[in-house]
Design a protein that fits this description.
Structural class of chain B: mainly alpha
Number of helices of chain A: 2
Oligomer: heterodimer
Largest sheet of chain A: 2 strands, antiparallel
Distance between the termini of chain A: 23 Å
Number of strands of chain A: 4
Largest sheet of chain B: 2 strands, antiparallel
Low-confidence stretches of chain A: none
Mean pLDDT of chain A: 89
Radius of gyration of chain A: 22 Å
Helix content of chain B: 40-55%
Shape of chain B: flat
Largest interface: A-B, 40 and 36 residues
Distance between the termini of chain B: 20 Å
Order of helices and strands of chain B: HEHEH
Mean pLDDT of chain B: 84
Strand content of chain A: 15-25%
Number of helices of chain B: 3
């Protein structure tokens, strides 16, 4: 039913933003996950959003948003010379993830604000629907 | 007075307001989608097209397998792109504040139209019951 589409649209927005929040949480949790090789080190993960378009009518308005994938940040890893560290490699280096805490914090605020926006939309839509139900009483 | 005439304007208004709410909700859902361009339509212009005096152009289905083309309330040509006040690096033109303001304005207008429709129903009801 078309009048209920607005709930799906805002729901897809909430879904996408909560996935983004999950990734932020994962990045923050792994900020100190050091490792002994470049390949094994955790890399900051970022979501890729895409607008969902109507399949029959791709020039029309979007039907919501979808997370199409997760990309790993290509920023250089931080290598540290710590020969005493248990994870140090043969040359005495450890590798830290390329997670930028400041960026992640900003990301988190942006995601939670966007999430709240979508909740507001659902609340407003619910009020609109309630008014329809009470019509003519 | 035909019953259709009594309600048709409000019917179109409410439908169109609901559609606009969907478009604006889609904009807000895509507030962080790179390259997404915010859409909106001119309410008055689209409503004038919808009102019965000017019959809207509809597709005729002459076969059972034909898709219902008449269901589309707002054509893609009527859906315009919003011009952002501050362009962003990723090409996204959604400004959440603008969308938020338009959305609440639209919701208010929707409620107002419903109130008018409600009044029309009530007056017809009182005419029927003869009170």
């Amino acid at each position: 039913m078309s009048s209920m589409k607005i709930f799906d649209i805002a729901g897809s927005g909430m879904n996408a933003q909560s996935l983004r929040l999950n990734l932020v949480a994962s990045n923050m949790a792994n900020v100190d996950a050091v490792s002994s090789s470049v390949d094994e080190t955790y890399r900051s993960r970022q979501p890729v959003f895409r607008a969902v378009l109507d399949q029959l009518n791709s020039r029309g308005a979007a039907d919501g948003v979808r997370m199409v994938g997760v990309v790993e940040s290509q920023a250089p890893l931080v290598s540290e010379y710590q020969p005493d560290h248990p994870m140090a490699d043969d040359a005495g280096y450890i590798y830290r993830p390329n997670v930028n805490m400041v960026e992640e914090m900003a990301n988190m605020i942006s995601a939670s604000r966007a999430y709240q926006n979508n909740v507001q939309v659902i609340n407003a839509a619910r009020q609109m629907m309630t008014a329809v139900i009470n019509l003519g009483r | 007075m035909k019953l259709d005439d009594a309600f048709s304007l409000y019917e179109h208004t409410v439908k169109l307001r609901a559609r606009r709410a969907e478009v604006l909700a889609a904009n807000m859902a895509n507030a962080d989608t790179p390259g997404y361009r915010a859409r909106d339509f001119d309410f008055r212009q689209v409503l004038e097209r919808q009102t019965p005096q000017v019959a809207p152009v509809r597709l005729v289905s002459t076969h059972a397998a034909h898709l219902d083309g008449g269901r589309e309330l707002v054509s893609p040509a009527q859906l315009k792109y919003r011009i952002p006040q501050q362009p962003t690096l990723d090409g996204n033109t959604v400004e959440v504040e603008v969308e938020q303001a338009q959305f609440s304005k639209n919701a208010m207008a929707y409620q107002a139209s419903l109130r008018f429709l409600d009044g029309r129903i009530k007056s017809l009801k009182s005419a029927i019951s003869g009170e």
